[in-house]
Amino acid sequence: MKVAVLSDIHGNLTALTAVTQHISQWQPDIVIVNGDIVNGLPHSLACWQQVQAQPAWQVVRGNHEEYVAEWDNLADVDPLTFRVNQISWHTYRQMNGQVAKLWALPLQTAVSAPDGSTLTVTHASVRGIRDGIFAHTPDDEVARQIAPETAVFVTAHTHQPFIRRLNGTQVVNVGAVGLPGDGDRRASYGRFTWTRHNGWQAHIVRVPYNWQQAAQTFFTTGYLDDVGPMARLSLAELQHARDFKARWARTYQQAVRDGRISLEASVQAVLDE
Question: What is the pLDDT of residues 119-168, one digit of tens each?
């Protein structure tokens, strides 16, 4: 049995196309998309359509599907909140009435091997799709994030791939297709095989693609102008394979809300670090 799990595409059509071709050549029995197809780069709708067009691909909801779908229920927001979240608003408009399909996605799926052992897939942890697991997360914390015990627990969300073992469980973060966060610009996904002799085996695969072409779409589509300052952080994440938005949130988000620094200046400060 062969299972491919990809995640965190974030509207990067160039990367998704490369990974789709790579997976097709491997010919897995099952393909699972572990959330965050949309939101980040200019081509969220095209990525959603490409995933939906794949025969029998399973899709799990990520936090960015929720960020986009939440615009369905939001009343008027203040101008600053709108500007900070303008990427998801842009994606919401781009999705053109397909937002209900994002809400309909399951939070978890699982694959059972012939011996009854299970590979469990969810975007972050059993506690929620924004509760990330890292390579350095303490064992006792991970135990709570993956309970009940399963043969393989497949996560994503942090954009940082790893494989670790906790008691009887392989815990695997498959990384990100569209916005890797570990300093390696190559797209990342996970391959899982089950055999009667070896049980479940996990491998992280890196796929080179033309990231410069993906970066160019920020300019050719007008995305930078349409989305505003936060789009510059997405572009930097693509170029450097690092999480600039989390750094902005930790250092400047409250200061921006308090009026101590402008959104534009805070974004520039992060980029200058």
Answer: 999 999 999 999 999 999 999 999 999 999 899 999 999 999 999 999 99
Helix (H, G, I), strand (E, B) or coil at 30: strand
CA atoms within 13 A on the CB side of 162: 16
Residues facing residue 30 across a β-bridge:
3
* Chain centroid to CA 28: 21
Beta strand pairing call for 152-155 and 162-166: unpaired
User: The tokens 């469990």 sit on which residue?
Assistant: 120
Q: Domain-by-domain residue ranges, the chain? A: 2-207, 219-272
State the Rg of the chain over Cα: 18
CA dihedral 244, 125, 141, 136 (to 10 degrees): -40
3-state secondary structure string across 151-186: CEEEECCCCCCEEEEECCEEEEECCCCCCCCCCCCC
Continuous H helices in 76-222: 79-84, 86-95, 99-103, 139-146, 211-220
Chain segment 34-88, per-residue pLDDT in tens = 999 999 999 999 999 999 999 999 999 999 999 999 998 876 788 999 999 999 9
Q: Enter the CATH code of domain 2-207.
A: 3.60.21.10
Residue 33 sits at φ, ψ, to 5 deg, of -100, 115
- Count the residues in the chain: 273
